[in-house]
Task: inverse folding
């Protein structure tokens, strides 16, 4: 018997035993439900008008339904000597992240899945080149991931597919007793977020938003400084995803089909809040002593993609059938229970140098990124920005232990994989959980609704059902292997 099986408490199926996994999945397979009144996913255009009853459905989703399981706050993984991983989605993201799973000790890639056979075969070749046994390969259509999740020799499922599939794949993994980590965003509707929360609690499986930006060197340094009180009492923060993706979204060789661009025909709000929201939420201990209460959003006209198309796409290209409604720039203000303010921005449709803003301010000073600069008392008193590099002593232990990490995005991808696999091997509580995943993703549907309501505030659900009031640890950890 393997370590994972020995450590299993036998509760991960819980009361799901009587449920038909396939029937549950099929009834919720479409990711555009009545809760937001979005058009069919396959349609090239979409109307922003809600369907009858949509507002009531959103109001129900914004409340806290009765808990049917037990909280996952503070629940550790089962320790195991080897973490057995299945990877679903092997395009740009999954095809590169597999290298990092293979680079971490105590991790075995057991299975890979992608409907594009060439991508799955390339990934399988990487596994054997790393000296591991050949993984099982699943390439029989878009639903073959279900068979991967049904395997008995997988502990963790990593999902790196188009957004349309994230919700159903996370469900499938948990219903089959697997912990699951999903690329951003984890779902696109409030009722889906609640369903993932409930399913995590009922199956006792962790469901995580794998937010790599939380593991950036600057982000982790600011986190430790904030928790040490260097910024004083925290007042405000900001995060963003301002990244010119016009060329990539119209490049048929980059994304597998136009899936990402098509979301600009369906929603007006912030499609990708996690990179900016996650780090600031960590600074402010959101869900760990404070919580996000409401969001107010405004959006600019949607002009950028149509203008780019007119300049670069030939007549007759399928993109000419698309009508873009996504605001070129969305700006949201999130209010917390303690009265703090978080500003979120999203812009992937206009010329702009890459920026996640990544700002934090308090009663003793402020940090702003892109470029990194700091001004805190008593170190600075002349109204001139200070050198953030002088605060390297506050680096998180991950960055002190791994000064030159492999992989993309400046090493944050490796830090995420290393730390997650460490938590699973040692049986630790994960750095973030399903409640963080739901909170960081809630601005997707709620910013859309706020913009449609001319900036009216929208309630952010308390996905923790009151557990946020209890202070608890998060990413500001100590190295468990040096204790």
Result:
């Amino acid at each position: 018997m393997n370590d994972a099986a020995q450590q299993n408490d036998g509760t991960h199926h819980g009361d799901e035993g009587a449920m038909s996994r396939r029937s549950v999945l099929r009834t919720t397979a479409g990711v555009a439900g009545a809760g937001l009144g979005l058009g069919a996913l396959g349609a090239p255009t979409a109307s922003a008008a809600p369907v009858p009853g949509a507002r009531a459905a959103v109001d129900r989703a914004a409340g806290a339904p009765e808990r049917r399981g037990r909280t996952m706050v503070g629940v550790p993984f089962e320790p195991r000597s080897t973490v057995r991983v299945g990877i679903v989605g092997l395009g740009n993201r999954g095809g590169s992240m597999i290298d990092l799973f293979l680079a971490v000790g105590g991790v075995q890639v057991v299975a890979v899945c992608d409907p594009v056979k060439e991508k799955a075969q390339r990934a399988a070749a990487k596994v054997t080149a790393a000296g591991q046994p050949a993984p099982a390969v699943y390439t029989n259509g878009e639903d073959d991931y279900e068979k991967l999740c049904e395997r008995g020799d997988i502990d963790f499922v990593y999902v790196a597919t188009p957004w349309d599939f994230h919700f159903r794949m996370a469900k499938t993994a948990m219903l089959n007793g697997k912990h699951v980590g999903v690329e951003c965003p984890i779902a696109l509707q409030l009722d889906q977020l609640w369903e993932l929360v409930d399913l995590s609690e009922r199956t006792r499986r962790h469901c995580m938003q794998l937010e790599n930006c939380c593991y950036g060197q600057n982000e982790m340094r600011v986190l430790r400084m904030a928790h040490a009180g260097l910024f004083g009492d925290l007042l405000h923060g900001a995060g963003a995803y301002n990244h010119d993706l016009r060329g990539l979204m119209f490049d048929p060789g980059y994304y597998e089909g136009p899936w990402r661009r098509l979301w600009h025909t369906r929603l007006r709000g912030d499609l990708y809040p996690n990179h900016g929201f996650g780090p600031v939420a960590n600074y402010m201990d959101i869900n760990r002593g404070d919580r996000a209460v409401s969001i107010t959003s405004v959006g600019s006209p949607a002009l950028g993609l149509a203008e780019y198309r007119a300049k670069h796409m030939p007549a007759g290209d399928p993109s000419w059938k698309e009508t873009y409604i996504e605001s070129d720039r969305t700006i949201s203000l999130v209010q917390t229970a303690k009265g703090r303010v978080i500003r979120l921005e999203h812009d992937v449709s206009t010329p702009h140098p890459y920026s996640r803003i990544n700002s934090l301010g308090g009663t003793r000073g402020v940090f702003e990124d892109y470029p990194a600069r700091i001004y805190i008392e008593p170190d600075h008193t002349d109204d001139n920005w200070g050198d953030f590099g002088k605060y390297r002593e506050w680096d998180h232990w991950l960055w002190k232990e791994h000064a030159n990490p492999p992989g993309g995005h400046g090493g944050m991808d490796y830090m995420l994989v290393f730390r997650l696999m460490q938590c699973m091997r040692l049986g630790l509580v994960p750095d973030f959980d399903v409640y963080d995943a739901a909170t960081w993703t809630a601005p997707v549907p709620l910013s859309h609704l706020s913009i449609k309501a001319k900036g009216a505030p929208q309630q952010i659900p308390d996905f923790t059902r009151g557990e946020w009031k209890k202070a608890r640890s998060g990413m500001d950890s100590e190295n468990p292997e040096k204790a």
Summary: Residues 412-426 form the longest helix (15 residues). Residues 1-61 have pLDDT under 50 and may be disordered. The CA atoms of residues 240 and 455 lie 18 Å apart.
